Amino acid sequence: MRAAWRVAQVRAAEESLMQTLPDGALMQRAAAGLARRCADTLPRVYGARVLLLVGPGNNGGDALYAGALLARRGARVDALLFDPDRVHRGGAEALYRAGGRLSEAAPDGADLVVDGILGIGGHGGLREPAAAKVADIAGILIGAPVIAVDVPSGVDADTGAVTGMAVHADITVTFGVLKPGLLVGAGAVHAGIVELVDIGLTGHLDGEPALYVPDSDDIAAWWPRAQPSDNKYSRGVVGLATGSDKYPGAAVLSTAGALAGPVGLVRYAGSAADAVRLHHPPVIATERVADAGRVQAWACGSGLGTDERAYGELRAVLGAPVPAILDADALTLLADARLADWLRERDAPTVVTPHDGEFQRLSGGAPGDDRVAAAVTLAARMDAVVLLKGYRTIVATPDGRVYVNLTGTAALATGGTGDVLAGLLGALLAGGMQAEHAAVAAAYTHGLAGRRAAEGGPVTASDVASHLRGAVGSLTRR
Hints:
- The chain folds into two domains: 2-210, Rossmann fold (3-Layer(aba) Sandwich); 216-476, Ribokinase (UDP-N-acetylmuramoyl-L-alanine:D-glutamate ligase, 3-Layer(aba) Sandwich), CATH 3.40.1190.20.
- The chain is an alpha/beta fold.
- Helix content is 40%, strand content 15%.
- The protein has helices at 7-18, 25-41, 57-72, 89-97, 130-136, 138-143, 185-191, 216-222, 248-259, 273-279, 308-319, 329-334, 340-344, 356-363, 371-382, 417-430, 435-454, 461-476, and strands spanning 2-4, 49-54, 76-81, 101-103, 112-116, 146-149, 171-175, 193-197, 211-213, 237-241, 265-269, 284-286, 297-300, 324-326, 350-352, 385-388, 394-396, 402-404.
């Protein structure tokens, strides 16, 4: 599993590594990796027009040394200096010797732009006069691929916050380790494709990472597998307290999600039982949680409603001594102080799955610019695993461990897809997966299904559900 590290940890690791290397060697490693990615992006290097946006300090130095390498291969390299008095002298001299040009005025155009204005130490958006300079070359930035050096300028490397003007990169070449701000929040959108250049930091990092980044091998390793001795009960039974007379589709969709999971049996409890029986014959459907029979986990809330009947069903789920995932209307009901003790007294794991609006109802405020910190705070306060939905879904545990899912897609921003996710997550809990792993695995697989569905055009929740089995199969056949 990959990880992302905070700026302070990266700085300390760089200092430790530089003590073992000749002077300037670390920057040369970074510049070589950056130049290689620039060359791969261009149709050809010889004769290509490369524009470097050069700020003060080491970030600008990386860009200048990379530009020198490209100039030696025949590229026309122009360096637009944002702070000439503080330019990295060694990098500037290297570019000049290689035939590049240093200027305070931009050329007419470029085939590639390299953003080296601010590095990982930058906070807040681009300030004047840098912001005005970037605005002046907006046409060039729109017309050419943009590669950011370590982090797009104006993006907070620790949080992903973008609180002012920031560069939109097509590719971000980051050095040594991933940074959280490239993976979450607005920063993930500004970063584009993130590529990591190994400069030897790994053995010099101290402390715990800020984020963990699971991949398909992690999900496959966690996924419960049926054994030859299993029967439908030993594989796990999930209960669904979802849907209602008003929202029967939520029951149908959450059931579809659960049926794609690893369990041997799905039990449905709710007023949409007839719709579930019609669409999913293998499911055992009853009218109430109390009549459902034994389960190993509950998924509750999708389309449940917020009336007294829904309140009673949620209370029954909270009182059950098994893991539970609480979604949608269940989260709205949790804002009722009458349920506080029921949640507080639970011994079994609980997972909550808010989008931003539901998060605000639970916490009293929006997630804000630092979505990771917001999720961690809510997880600790509720003593629950928090799956904070979004383009980059975040999973936080009560003890502060955080995961980010990279398979998400904007195509999933449509009604009912969260119902599918809730059903799958409930099935993973019932199958015996740890709560934090179940949340991560459900988000990862759900994202894969969304991407597959998007290949056929506009996406509905039913499309996501129909692609979920294929997504699961691609992981579990390993």
